[in-house]
Amino acid sequence: MRKFAIAKIEPKHRITKQYMDLQQRINAFVKLGEFINQFQQNKISKNDKIEANDLFFDGFKHQIKLAQEHNGWFTQQNITFTLENWSNVLSNKNINRWIEKYQFNINNPKTVAIIMAGNIPLVGFHDFLSVLISGHNVLVKQSSNDKHLLPFLAKYLEVIEPNFKGKIKFTEEKLENFDAVIATGSDNTARYFEYYFKDKPSIIRKNRNSVAILTGNETNEELEALSHDIFRYYGLGCRNVSKLFVPKDYNFDAFFNAVYKWHPIINESKYANNYDYNKAVYLMSEFDMLENGFLMIKEDESYASPIATLFYEYYDNKTDLEHKLKTDADKIQCIVANNFSTDEIIFGKTQKPQLWEYADNIDTVEFLLKM
């Protein structure tokens, strides 16, 4: 009787089917969030209740170590900051809030190629998530600067949800056999992407930078929060504030006092080398600037500032500044401010985007569902 009962049930492999419903995909990413929640900034600690943890916990610790060794900008603090943010975002509540406005009816999944940047850890994860949550297959071409973390997390997804097997592929070769593309790069590479993928549905992202608008009435707490928007990831992300807009006769003393908590960053060699180099260039060129030993601020109309440098520009009134920012909208990722506009982000939150806050304000999921 016991043998007959076991033979009759045959449960496990029957769960694996060609079609995977939306709830299965949501559940898998929620479990992924629980897995990466073990890798916090303050502590990396194993939770024995996490599914498949014996297979993956130590391996992911090793991948974090490899990522650090391969890319000097990827410190453990920056990697775990990224992971901590994703673990907070990948909750059942957040994912359902994100997708509630869409109609998921993909009956014929396409293959979407993603060309990822490598400026900050897991910078292409939102695109990866969007493709899979939409029901499509993903073909990933990673940057050589960030190639250790995502493939391992993809393997975890395939183990906890076997229906993902065959839907995720990584390649280092020329992209082939895909139906659409999401590509992120510089302004120069974007022109290449636009030409090369002109016959495919595409999202092509270019250089963008973030700005902060100050009035002189900011509290110390707001300016301290702004320092995280500036220095996190060494300023390498498009969501990092690289430029300030300040009123005429703005006094930078309060700003410098508030950001001083980040002064240990000058002890990190890659950052220090950039600081020394850019300072020498400015001095030889006799540019006017202010500096405090780890950050230089320089008046400049550009949006993209070098590492260890923050540009600033004066504004006369709110109306003129609103017009300028609207004119330059295609250059700006985030606007950090307090009661300036409806699209602003509060101080300290640029590096903690929600799932519904899309890069370049292009709705990736809508694009994927209409493909």
Automatic annotation (TrEMBL):
<keyword id="KW-0521">NADP</keyword>
<protein>
    <submittedName>
        <fullName>Acyl-CoA reductase</fullName>
    </submittedName>
</protein>
<dbReference type="Pfam" id="PF05893">
    <property type="entry name" value="LuxC"/>
</dbReference>
<dbReference type="InterPro" id="IPR008670">
    <property type="entry name" value="CoA_reduct_LuxC"/>
</dbReference>
<dbReference type="InterPro" id="IPR016161">
    <property type="entry name" value="Ald_DH/histidinol_DH"/>
</dbReference>
